[in-house]
Amino acid sequence: MNITLEHISKRFQRYWIFREVNYVFKAPGAYALLGPNGCGKSTLLRLIAGMQSSSAGKVFYHNDKGQAVPGTSIFSDISFCAPGMELIEELTLREFLEFHFSFKKPLPGLDIDKIIALTGLKDAEHKPIGDYSSGMKQRVKLAQAIFADTPVLLIDEPCTNLDQQGVDQYKHWIETYGKGRLIIVASNDEREYYFCKEQIVIGDYK
Q1: Number of domains within the chain
Q2: Nearest 5°: phi and psi at 42?
Q3: Residue 175 and residue 179: Cα distance in Å, rounded?
Q4: What is the pLDDT of residue 60?
Q5: Residue 206 has pLDDT above 90, yes or no
Q6: Domain span at residue 116?
Q7: How is residue 107 annotated by DSSP?
Q8: How far apart (Å, rounded) are the C-alpha atoms in residues 85 and 127?
Q9: How far apart are CA 156 and CA 12, in angstroms?
Q10: What whole-number distance in Å separates Cα of residue 144 and Cα of residue 173?
Q11: Could you tell me which residues come within 8 angstroms of residue 51 by beta carbon, excluding any fewer than 6 positions away?
Q12: DSSP string spanning 28-71?
């Protein structure tokens, strides 16, 4: 899937966060949205995901055949992960993954058992996610996004709350399971976007 931004602008009250973003994200490829905290990286990522509306401009989606895809139909094509996203904390890890992957298929060759093993949380699979540490929860958020069979992967600050082992795990997942996809990472930490050949500095669109 290719995603095109035309004249995308966003403001909160009287203040413009960014203006006139014109860009084409082409698959396969890896892109980084860069800039300090508060510059609008996360907001732009949510706009691309169809989770927020812009103040001006439009987002267009086209599948690998060049056919337009309505914004109302992109859910099945996009995986999203952000530190602030909610997990169903009353569910166990296994229950949560079974629920999530009832809406989106896992990548070929993966199933719930294999995904749990990949997270390294096998010993905690029957515990409520609400009892997990912040780092464990972040692994779950990354797993539900990266291991879903979607052509587009949108990730906001993926290494938040992760220790070095978790960072290494994230890098391995991206290198192994990110091939052939359109990946967009919002970050100000090079460990999170080191593989992104294309970089967009949000501060250039003020």
Answers
A1: 1
A2: -65, -40
A3: 7
A4: 97
A5: no
A6: 2-205
A7: P
A8: 20
A9: 20
A10: 12
A11: 80
A12: SEEEEEE-STTSSHHHHHHHHHTSS--SEEEEEEE-TTS-EE-G
**Helix axes 93-100 and 134-146, enclosed angle (nearest 10):** 30
**pLDDT 10s digits, 145-174:** 999 999 999 999 999 999 999 999 999 999
Phi/psi of residue 98, nearest 5 degrees: -60, -40
Please give the model's pTM, rounded to 2 decimal places: 0.95
Residue for token pair 């052939």: 180
The CATH number assigned to the domain holding 12 equals 3.40.50.300
Nearest by Cα to 130 from 95, 103, 182, 98: 95
Task: Show Cβ contacts of residue 194 under 8 Å, excluding neighbours closer than 6 positions.
Answer: 171
Q: Taking CA 1 as the corner, what is the angle to CA 53 and CA 26, rounded to the nearest 5 degrees?
A: 90
